[in-house]
TrEMBL record:
GO MF entries: arylformamidase activity
Gene Ontology BP, a term: L-tryptophan catabolic process to kynurenine
Lineage: Bacteria, Bacillati, Bacillota, Clostridia, Eubacteriales
SUPFAM superfamilies, alphabetized: Putative cyclase (SSF102198)
Protein's name in the database: Cyclase family protein
Signal peptide region: none
Length: 256
Protein backbone atom coordinates (compact mmCIF):
# COMPACT_ATOMS: atom_id res chain seq x y z
CA UNK A 1 0.00 0.00 0.00
CA UNK A 2 1.15 3.55 -0.74
CA UNK A 3 2.10 5.76 2.16
CA UNK A 4 -0.63 8.42 2.33
CA UNK A 5 0.93 10.47 5.11
CA UNK A 6 1.47 13.55 2.92
CA UNK A 7 -2.13 13.45 1.75
CA UNK A 8 -3.29 13.39 5.35
CA UNK A 9 -0.98 16.29 6.20
CA UNK A 10 -2.37 18.53 3.47
CA UNK A 11 -5.89 17.85 4.76
CA UNK A 12 -4.70 18.90 8.19
CA UNK A 13 -3.02 22.05 6.86
CA UNK A 14 -6.21 23.08 5.05
CA UNK A 15 -8.31 22.65 8.17
CA UNK A 16 -9.41 25.50 10.42
CA UNK A 17 -6.37 24.90 12.64
CA UNK A 18 -4.19 26.75 10.13
CA UNK A 19 -4.42 29.83 7.95
CA UNK A 20 -2.89 30.42 4.54
CA UNK A 21 -1.58 33.93 3.98
CA UNK A 22 -0.64 35.37 0.59
CA UNK A 23 2.56 37.40 1.01
CA UNK A 24 2.62 38.67 -2.56
CA UNK A 25 1.64 42.01 -4.08
CA UNK A 26 -0.69 41.80 -7.07
CA UNK A 27 1.33 42.15 -10.27
CA UNK A 28 0.28 45.17 -12.35
CA UNK A 29 1.59 48.58 -13.49
CA UNK A 30 0.59 49.86 -10.03
CA UNK A 31 2.63 47.26 -8.11
CA UNK A 32 5.11 48.75 -5.61
CA UNK A 33 8.62 48.46 -7.02
CA UNK A 34 12.13 49.89 -6.86
CA UNK A 35 12.21 53.45 -8.18
CA UNK A 36 14.72 52.63 -10.93
CA UNK A 37 12.32 50.30 -12.77
CA UNK A 38 9.56 51.09 -15.23
CA UNK A 39 6.04 49.83 -14.44
CA UNK A 40 4.96 46.50 -15.91
CA UNK A 41 3.74 46.74 -19.52
CA UNK A 42 1.36 44.37 -21.29
CA UNK A 43 0.82 43.99 -25.04
CA UNK A 44 -2.28 42.08 -26.18
CA UNK A 45 -1.18 39.41 -28.66
CA UNK A 46 -4.40 37.47 -29.21
CA UNK A 47 -7.99 38.06 -28.17
CA UNK A 48 -11.29 36.20 -28.19
CA UNK A 49 -12.72 38.35 -31.01
CA UNK A 50 -14.01 36.56 -34.10
CA UNK A 51 -12.25 37.11 -37.41
CA UNK A 52 -9.85 35.60 -39.90
CA UNK A 53 -6.38 34.19 -39.14
CA UNK A 54 -4.95 37.34 -40.68
CA UNK A 55 -6.67 39.33 -37.94
CA UNK A 56 -4.90 37.18 -35.33
CA UNK A 57 -8.29 36.09 -34.04
CA UNK A 58 -8.15 33.11 -31.70
CA UNK A 59 -10.30 31.30 -29.11
CA UNK A 60 -8.03 32.64 -26.39
CA UNK A 61 -6.52 35.76 -24.91
CA UNK A 62 -2.81 36.13 -24.19
CA UNK A 63 -0.34 38.94 -23.56
CA UNK A 64 3.33 39.67 -23.89
CA UNK A 65 4.60 41.24 -20.69
CA UNK A 66 7.61 43.48 -20.15
CA UNK A 67 8.78 43.66 -16.55
CA UNK A 68 12.05 44.20 -14.66
CA UNK A 69 13.51 41.09 -13.09
CA UNK A 70 13.31 42.51 -9.54
CA UNK A 71 9.76 43.89 -9.80
CA UNK A 72 7.13 43.81 -7.08
CA UNK A 73 7.34 40.86 -4.70
CA UNK A 74 10.39 39.11 -6.09
CA UNK A 75 13.23 36.73 -5.42
CA UNK A 76 16.88 37.73 -5.50
CA UNK A 77 19.27 34.85 -6.14
CA UNK A 78 23.06 34.94 -5.59
CA UNK A 79 23.88 35.95 -9.16
CA UNK A 80 21.99 39.22 -8.71
CA UNK A 81 24.99 40.69 -6.83
CA UNK A 82 27.61 37.96 -7.36
CA UNK A 83 28.76 37.19 -10.88
CA UNK A 84 29.82 33.65 -9.99
CA UNK A 85 26.76 32.97 -7.85
CA UNK A 86 23.93 30.60 -8.63
CA UNK A 87 21.30 31.67 -11.14
CA UNK A 88 17.58 30.98 -10.84
CA UNK A 89 17.76 27.71 -12.75
CA UNK A 90 20.30 26.46 -10.18
CA UNK A 91 18.08 26.97 -7.14
CA UNK A 92 16.81 23.62 -5.85
CA UNK A 93 13.09 23.16 -5.22
CA UNK A 94 13.91 22.31 -1.59
CA UNK A 95 15.01 25.94 -1.23
CA UNK A 96 11.48 27.13 -1.91
CA UNK A 97 10.06 25.86 1.42
CA UNK A 98 11.29 26.92 4.88
CA UNK A 99 10.30 27.05 8.54
CA UNK A 100 9.20 30.66 9.03
CA UNK A 101 10.35 33.13 11.67
CA UNK A 102 8.77 36.60 11.81
CA UNK A 103 10.60 39.38 13.67
CA UNK A 104 8.09 42.16 14.33
CA UNK A 105 9.63 45.62 14.46
CA UNK A 106 6.63 47.46 13.03
CA UNK A 107 6.23 49.75 16.06
CA UNK A 108 9.88 50.76 15.91
CA UNK A 109 9.64 51.40 12.17
CA UNK A 110 6.53 53.54 12.65
CA UNK A 111 8.46 55.67 15.13
CA UNK A 112 11.66 55.75 13.09
CA UNK A 113 11.58 55.34 9.31
CA UNK A 114 15.36 54.80 9.35
CA UNK A 115 15.15 51.85 11.72
CA UNK A 116 17.87 49.19 11.30
CA UNK A 117 17.33 45.64 12.58
CA UNK A 118 20.37 44.56 14.65
CA UNK A 119 21.88 41.45 16.23
CA UNK A 120 20.56 42.70 19.58
CA UNK A 121 17.03 42.72 18.16
CA UNK A 122 17.41 39.11 17.03
CA UNK A 123 18.77 38.02 20.41
CA UNK A 124 15.87 39.78 22.13
CA UNK A 125 13.46 37.90 19.83
CA UNK A 126 15.11 34.60 20.78
CA UNK A 127 14.77 35.43 24.47
CA UNK A 128 11.00 35.40 23.98
CA UNK A 129 10.42 32.77 21.29
CA UNK A 130 13.45 30.48 21.42
CA UNK A 131 16.37 29.78 19.14
CA UNK A 132 15.93 30.53 15.44
CA UNK A 133 15.95 27.12 13.72
CA UNK A 134 18.53 26.08 11.19
CA UNK A 135 17.52 26.68 7.55
CA UNK A 136 14.77 29.09 8.60
CA UNK A 137 13.37 31.92 6.51
CA UNK A 138 13.65 35.01 8.71
CA UNK A 139 11.16 37.72 7.77
CA UNK A 140 11.58 41.28 9.03
CA UNK A 141 8.11 42.71 9.64
CA UNK A 142 7.98 46.50 9.35
CA UNK A 143 4.41 46.96 8.00
CA UNK A 144 6.13 48.95 5.24
CA UNK A 145 3.86 47.35 2.64
CA UNK A 146 1.11 49.70 3.84
CA UNK A 147 3.08 52.74 2.67
CA UNK A 148 1.83 54.40 -0.54
CA UNK A 149 5.47 54.91 -1.55
CA UNK A 150 8.09 52.39 -0.45
CA UNK A 151 10.86 54.99 -0.78
CA UNK A 152 9.08 57.32 1.67
CA UNK A 153 10.99 60.43 0.53
CA UNK A 154 11.25 63.53 2.68
CA UNK A 155 10.69 67.10 1.48
CA UNK A 156 14.13 67.04 -0.15
CA UNK A 157 13.48 63.79 -1.99
CA UNK A 158 15.77 61.75 0.29
CA UNK A 159 14.34 58.24 0.88
CA UNK A 160 13.70 56.90 4.37
CA UNK A 161 12.87 53.22 4.87
CA UNK A 162 13.95 50.53 7.35
CA UNK A 163 16.34 47.67 6.69
CA UNK A 164 18.77 45.12 8.01
CA UNK A 165 22.12 45.78 9.63
CA UNK A 166 24.69 43.70 7.72
CA UNK A 167 25.97 42.37 11.05
CA UNK A 168 22.49 40.97 11.82
CA UNK A 169 22.37 39.09 8.52
CA UNK A 170 25.89 37.81 9.07
CA UNK A 171 24.94 36.57 12.55
CA UNK A 172 21.91 34.75 11.14
CA UNK A 173 23.99 33.05 8.46
CA UNK A 174 27.06 32.20 10.53
CA UNK A 175 25.53 31.57 13.97
CA UNK A 176 22.05 30.30 13.11
CA UNK A 177 22.68 28.90 9.61
CA UNK A 178 19.43 30.30 8.24
CA UNK A 179 18.27 29.57 4.71
CA UNK A 180 16.86 32.90 3.52
CA UNK A 181 15.60 36.32 4.57
CA UNK A 182 12.73 38.54 3.50
CA UNK A 183 11.39 42.05 4.06
CA UNK A 184 8.78 44.54 2.89
CA UNK A 185 10.86 47.43 1.48
CA UNK A 186 12.50 47.20 -1.95
CA UNK A 187 16.02 47.09 -0.47
CA UNK A 188 17.73 44.90 2.10
CA UNK A 189 19.64 47.80 3.60
CA UNK A 190 17.90 50.86 5.10
CA UNK A 191 17.56 54.00 3.01
CA UNK A 192 20.18 55.98 4.88
CA UNK A 193 22.72 53.27 3.95
CA UNK A 194 21.78 52.88 0.28
CA UNK A 195 22.04 56.64 -0.24
CA UNK A 196 25.44 57.10 1.43
CA UNK A 197 28.20 58.36 -0.81
CA UNK A 198 31.08 57.25 1.43
CA UNK A 199 30.37 53.50 1.42
CA UNK A 200 29.18 50.71 -0.84
CA UNK A 201 25.43 51.26 -0.85
CA UNK A 202 24.17 47.67 -0.43
CA UNK A 203 26.36 45.86 2.14
CA UNK A 204 23.58 43.69 3.58
CA UNK A 205 22.25 42.60 0.22
CA UNK A 206 25.75 41.94 -1.07
CA UNK A 207 26.44 39.76 1.96
CA UNK A 208 23.29 37.58 1.90
CA UNK A 209 23.65 36.83 -1.82
CA UNK A 210 27.38 36.16 -1.62
CA UNK A 211 26.57 33.80 1.26
CA UNK A 212 24.77 31.73 -1.39
CA UNK A 213 21.30 32.44 0.02
CA UNK A 214 18.19 33.82 -1.61
CA UNK A 215 15.99 36.64 -0.36
CA UNK A 216 12.46 37.87 -1.01
CA UNK A 217 11.79 41.60 -1.25
CA UNK A 218 8.62 43.74 -1.30
CA UNK A 219 6.64 41.27 0.82
CA UNK A 220 3.24 41.99 2.29
CA UNK A 221 0.87 40.73 5.00
CA UNK A 222 3.60 39.77 7.44
CA UNK A 223 1.33 41.30 10.10
CA UNK A 224 -1.04 38.34 9.61
CA UNK A 225 1.57 35.74 10.61
CA UNK A 226 2.59 34.15 13.88
CA UNK A 227 6.17 34.76 15.09
CA UNK A 228 6.92 31.03 15.12
CA UNK A 229 5.40 27.75 13.95
CA UNK A 230 4.71 28.64 10.32
CA UNK A 231 6.02 27.53 6.95
CA UNK A 232 6.75 29.69 3.91
CA UNK A 233 6.67 28.70 0.25
CA UNK A 234 8.48 30.93 -2.27
CA UNK A 235 7.90 29.86 -5.87
CA UNK A 236 9.46 31.44 -8.97
CA UNK A 237 10.42 30.50 -12.54
CA UNK A 238 13.38 28.27 -13.41
CA UNK A 239 14.90 31.03 -15.53
CA UNK A 240 18.24 30.21 -17.16
CA UNK A 241 20.94 32.63 -15.94
CA UNK A 242 18.20 34.58 -14.14
CA UNK A 243 19.16 36.97 -11.35
CA UNK A 244 15.64 37.39 -9.97
CA UNK A 245 11.98 37.49 -10.93
CA UNK A 246 8.54 38.26 -9.54
CA UNK A 247 7.68 35.48 -7.08
CA UNK A 248 4.55 34.03 -5.50
CA UNK A 249 5.05 33.57 -1.78
CA UNK A 250 2.61 32.32 0.84
CA UNK A 251 2.72 31.11 4.41
CA UNK A 252 0.90 28.40 6.34
CA UNK A 253 0.75 29.13 10.04
CA UNK A 254 -1.30 28.30 13.12
CA UNK A 255 -4.67 30.06 13.19
CA UNK A 256 -4.27 31.10 16.81
Amino acid sequence: MANLQLWDQIKEWKSTKYKWVDLTHELSPETPHWFGFQPLQAELLFDYAEGTPEDKAAPMRCFQYSVASQYGTHVDVPRHFWGDGRAMNEIAVQEMVYPLVVVDKSAECAANADFMLTVEDLKAWEAVYGRIPENAFVAFRSDWYKKPNLDNPDENGVPHYPGWDKAAIQWLVEERHIGAIGHEPADTDPGFVTTREDAYPYPGEQYILEANRIQIEVMRNLDQLTPVGGLIVCAFPKLKDGTGFPARCFAICPAD
